[in-house]
Amino acid sequence: MWLPLFPLHTALFPGDALPLRVFEPRYREMMGWVLAGDRRFGVVAISAGTEVGEPSEVHSIGCIALIEHIAEAADGTFDLLCRGESRFQIVERLADDPYPHAEVRMLPDEPGENAAHAVAAARAALAKYARAVERLGLVIGHDEHANPIAESYRIAGALLVDVPVRQRLLACGTAAERLQLAGAVARREANILLTIGPSAGVPLGRPSPN
């Protein structure tokens, strides 16, 4: 299938909210096509380059974003609130004319082996991580999902980690694999926060400047 792409400095997970400001002419043109259709486009994490200006290199696995709310300003810019839906893999990146787009295939989501055990272990690791980040004045949500696939994305999305780690979590083949990796990351980050303290970096989750 053909899909317009929005390269960003984040990896979007299914179920995650994504606030986005659209001001570049190429993406404003893309929004015209998206809004005339089903209000969906692809979000891919940038591996090299920037969000603004020249074409950037992107990771091959991304996530469909559905526009839930939109506000258009008088100058033609848009403020969007989107929601991640499902994963895809780029089969062929096409020329960025007039905006980034690609041929993609949708990726299946499966629970994987021992998913129930992986959920329990990842929840315990996230609880420890949540206690650690509370010292920074941050709160991790506790809206658990019974479905291990949805729960794997919820736990992965709760971690304030950099783009390469988020991308690894997004790319996991099954929910069980994602839960195992998310649990390991949560335990590692919690230990760092509790023994060394926070880094000087800015947590993820702020709106993209686009």
For the largest beta-sheet, the strand count, sense and barrel status come to: 5 strands, mixed, barrel
As for the CATH topology of the largest domain, it is Archaeosine Trna-guanine Transglycosylase, Chain: A, domain 4
CATH architecture of the largest domain: Roll
Q: What's the total number of strands?
A: 7
Beta-strand content bin: 25-35%
* C-alpha termini separation: 25 Å
Structural class: alpha+beta
For the largest beta sheet, what order do the strands appear in spatially?
A: 1-3-5-6-7
Determine the fraction of residues in helical runs and give it as a percent range. 25-40%
Mean pLDDT: 89
User: What is the tally of helical segments?
Assistant: 5
Helix and strand run: EEHEEEEEHHHH
Summarize the structure.
By secondary structure, this protein is α+β, with helices and mostly antiparallel strands.
Your description of this structure?
With about 210 residues, the chain is α+β, with helices and mostly antiparallel strands. About 35% of the residues are buried. About 35% of the residues lie in helices and about 30% in strands. Strands 1-3-5-6-7 form a 5-stranded mixed β-barrel. It contains 5 helices and 7 strands. The chain folds into 2 domains: about 1-105, LON domain-like (Archaeosine Trna-guanine Transglycosylase, Chain: A, domain 4, Roll), CATH 2.30.130; about 115-195, Methane Monooxygenase Hydroxylase, Chain G, domain 1.
